[in-house]
Amino acid sequence: MRHFGHVPARERERLFHREPAEFTRDSPSRLLSAALGATLYSPATRPHLAADVLKQYGLGVRSMVLCLEDSIADGEVAEGEANLVAQLRELETGGARTPLLFVRVRAAAQIPDLARRLGPAVRLLSGFVLPKFTLERGEPFLQALSEAERASGQRLFAMPVLESPELLHLETRTGTLLDIAGVVDKYRDRVLALRLGVTDFCSAYGLRRAADTTAYDVGIVAHVIADVVNVLGRADGSGFTITGPVWEYFRLQERMFKPQLRASPFQEGRAEPLRAALIEHDLDGLLREIELDRANGLLGKTCIHPSHVMPVNALSVVTHEEYLDARDILSPGRGDGGVLRSAYTNKMNEVKPHRAWAERTLLRAEAFGVAREDIGFVELLAAGLAR
């Protein structure tokens, strides 16, 4: 599979200076963690779950979470498990291509149980999402994952969700973060990415951000994100990929503030109608939050609606300018440092301080490609949505 693989080859050639790389469930974890992109969540109780997975793959989704936790009622868990097993078996029998698939569980015991019940269909799974992750809950989850992996012979990854009150409350945050850092480091080869549960953070204080408001406008949430990245997102080899929080809105709401989406990138051709559609569906706030995610060290995003997927993935493509900067910084013979004028002659590239950024940028380029010089996210978004 590859990002933008649903776009015809000729169109990809027009859009990309360097196309996204192909990857599989067996690709190195470093690439898979960068390639998660927009991870679409779906309740495991959906009656046509297998068909939904295939449809979303055809529309460009490359990672999905089938949820047995907060998206379904407490009394629906057994039904959701049974449906999940049956639908994944159907997919496995059909042999069709699917995204990277993960299951969000409620309890550690579900992991080996579901892996056993899936039988050969477990090969479709890339891993499990572990909710409300702390030291006390995390160790049993990760032990259960190791047990399921041994029993099934299938490589399985964990994606812990950081959303517990202990992480939010100031008096327990540092200790909780250090405890989490210890346990995920112990299972480093099995932890694909860390996910942020911002909805639960807001819930602890009775908050809910509006469609005009990003997570970074909610002070208490912004502080937690910064602390999570500080401890768990370092570029010194100790850090992990941390994904952006969910965007909750997908239909028209009454606006309090003017649209955040500038008109200038959309002036040509069919782009202005696209801008109008994004504003109508409250996705201009999403685009702003995606940009702030990356500025704050996050990559990829939790999505609860298909309309969010292509904006996230289009904004994950590396620009031609970013690519040239990163390539120059990492070019042979630059290990001794120094300062370079950027290829676009608009900034300073300082080799040593910018090296980690450049390495991350080239990894993102491998996963999402590099746009041609005259191609921006508008064209990428339009192409992705046109299928």
Can you characterise this structure?
The strands form 3 sheets. This protein has an 8-stranded parallel barrel with strand order 2-3-4-5-6-7-8-9. Strands 1-12 form a two-stranded antiparallel sheet. A two-stranded antiparallel ribbon has the order 10-11. It is globular. The protein is 45% helix and 13% strand. The model is unreliable at 252-258 (pLDDT under 50). The longest helix has 18 residues, at 77-94. It folds into 2 domains: 21-316, Alpha-Beta Barrel (TIM Barrel); 318-387, no CATH class. Strand 2, helix 3 (49-58) and strand 3 form a beta-alpha-beta unit. With 387 residues, the chain is an alpha/beta fold. It contains 16 helices and 12 strands. The protein has helices at residues 9-15, 29-35, 49-58, 77-94, 110-118, 135-152, 165-168, 170-186, 198-203, 219-232, 271-280, 284-295, 309-314, 320-329, 351-368, 377-385, and strands at 16-18, 38-43, 63-67, 100-104, 125-130, 157-162, 194-196, 242-247, 301-303, 339-341, 348-350, 370-371.
SSE topology sketch:
Elements: H1 9-15, E1 16-18, H2 29-35, E2 38-43, H3 49-58, E3 63-67, H4 77-94, E4 100-104, H5 110-118, E5 125-130, H6 135-152, E6 157-162, H7 165-168, H8 170-186, E7 194-196, H9 198-203, H10 219-232, E8 242-247, H11 271-280, H12 284-295, E9 301-303, H13 309-314, H14 320-329, E10 339-341, E11 348-350, H15 351-368, E12 370-371, H16 377-385
Parallel strand pairs: 2-3, 2-9, 3-4, 4-5, 5-6, 6-7, 7-8, 8-9
Antiparallel strand pairs: 1-12, 10-11
Helix pairs in contact: 2-15, 5-6, 8-10, 14-15
